[in-house]
Each structure stands twice: as structure tokens, then as C-alpha cells.
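Reviewer 2 asked us to include a model.

Predict the structure of this chain.
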Amino acid sequence: MRTREIERRFLVRNDDWRRKAVAASELRQGYLLCDAHKSLRIRLVDGQAAFLTVKFKRQGIVRDEFEYAIPLLEAEELLERAIGAVIEKSRYRVPAGRFTWEIDVFHGAHSGLTIAEIELFSETDRPVLPRWLGPEITGDARYSNRTLATTILDRSAQLRLFGAKSAMITDEVSDSIRRLSSNYGPD
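Predicted model (C-alpha cells):
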């Protein structure tokens, strides 16, 4: 099915979101094709469902995406052929008005990284951003799932890139970032 993905992504600076989480899924995903303009991803959800997804280059915060359910056994076989590493993460859903935040807590090679994303209905949406968000990383290739799948960082580089100092930023810096583009709530 073809969709337009309109999303913003952020690092997460603390676990305050957990008290509002309503659902969780375990995801395993890998990439069969990655280049600057497109990617082909295999994703398993809770070991029960599998999807093949084609994504095209982002135009601002929008990109075209085609996603299809595929047989679980075929998805597992395809994951064995993935480029780089298979990403493992827990995904939590946190409702916020008419939007839902998806919080990805990474395991394995990227353990310690937590990313929040929000799917928007239009490019002009300005959702209230909770206080547990850190810096916005929309469009930052270092944090794309395909980069994470094909780049395994050593522990010291991982801490520099998205460890405690970048994810757990101070309120002062966080508030300055927030004032740049959106409304923020009390969370």
C-alpha cells in the first residue's frame, strides 16, 4: 500500500514518556537495499507479522512509502540476507491528542539509543512537543534506521553520538531548541 510518510524525529532525554505508553511491540528489521534515494526494508513485528517496505528520498519531512505484508518465514529468510546488522528495538506508543508518538528503544549494537517520532497529517501540523524530548533529528542521516543498520559504532563513539550527553540534554538547551519551531507541553 502506498502512503506519504510525514514525520518528525527527536532524541529522547528521559523516561517520563513511559507512564503514558499504552502499547509496545518488539521489532526486528534489516535492509536489503540502501542508497541515497531509496531503501528496501524487511520488518518483523512481535515475531507474528512481517512487512516489506520501500521508502524513497525525503523531501523535507515527507517521503513516499510502499508497504506490503509478507509471509513470516520469507521475512526471516530475507533478514538473513540483510546488509549490515539487523536492528532490534522495542517500540512504544504514546498518545498525545490527535497524534501518537512512537518511541523506539534500541537493543543490541545500539543499546542506549532512544528515538521518538511522530507521524503528522500534514506538513503544517505543529503538535505539542513533550518536555521529555531532546534535540530534533529529522533528516539527520546519522540517526536513520538504515544508517544504524549499516554502521556499528564502538561503545565510545556511540556515547559521543547519542549517549547520555546528547540524549539527556539540559533543560536550558532543550527549551532553546523547543522555542525554534513548535508548541511544547508540560510533560
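The chain has five helices and nine strands. The mean pLDDT is 84. We have added this to the supplementary material.
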